[in-house]
Amino acid sequence: MGRPKLDLGITAEERRELAAIAGSRSFPHGLVRRAQMILWSGEGLTVREVARRTKVTPAAVSNWRKRFREARVAGLHDALKSGRPRTLDDERIAELLNAALLRKPVAATHWTVRGLADETGVTKSSVQRYLTLFGVQPHRSKSFKLSNDPFFIEKVRDIVGLYLNPPDHALVLCVDEKSQVQALERTQPGVPMGLGYVEGVTHDYIRHGTTTLFAALDVANGTVITRCKARHRHQEFLAFLRHIEAGVPEALDVHLVVDNYATHKHPKVRAWLARRSRFHLHFTPTYSSWLNQVERWFGLITQRAIRRGSFDSVADLRRRIEQFAIHWNQHAKPFAWTATAESILEKLARLSKAISGTEH
Known about the structure:
Layout lengths: L11 H11 L6 H14 L4 H8 L3 H14 L18 H13 L10 H8 L3 H10 L18 H13 L5 E17 L18 E14 L5 E6 L4 H14 L5 E6 L8 H8 L4 E5 L10 H13 L7 H17 L10 H16 L4
Parallel strand pairs: 1-4, 4-5
Antiparallel strand pairs: 1-2, 2-3
């Protein structure tokens, strides 16, 4: 006859939870199968029948029935495995991090994984693991430049105010020029991208001349006004301003965000602007081109249309730039500017403290 089966006493709530686990496609397969075992056992199926349906041994079914009686649904989950014990204690890890953060190698500018391993006696794999865990990246660096503009705060508040709260009946344009855009022709055809390998281009090229790209980005809708000129003197900048003037309705004021390039402050440019009261210039602080949104657009056109291109003439380069601008305007979206003047100033204050070593 065998021993009588013990009733599992499955409640209605447990049955709903088990059914959800058994029907899941995201839970581990082993957990799903155990939930099915308990549900079928609760329906009165024998241990052998449940074992046959789930394709396990009867002993396994009995084991999970016992686990369910002792710990209910939580008992069906796998227990946490202890794993191999740590080979490095906290002191050794702290020593590794201090070496990476506070010391420099004798004959190099920054640490490598192998260099830290030799310095601290920690294995290379452990060095790599703990550097990744704590987000320490000695192999990387990023550039910065703090502005020395005496009116930095006022200019930041002025320009960010234009972005976040533009004036009524006005157009805000971010204006700049990308000078010395080179028409480079690759000396050989490129290798097309394929499965398992990237596109290949030759490292050498033929120079066919340069052009200067003038651009004005409308911060409200993301469209751009572009013109390519042979040079980037005040004459070309004035011509571009006239082009903007012709395209903007007379009822709108025009606020131009520009950098401190000498061309933008030329006496003839100032005289032209003085005769047009609806034009207003807003200068970014020195070394703060990141405040001008058109710089982001210059980065996009460089990445997507210029850097990997091959141009057989300056005219070909200009045509490709114009093609990109037309396509951009057909699908234009404004850049989402979210930084406030206060958040920018707080970030720069933290950077200044880190440079001076007074952050603590």
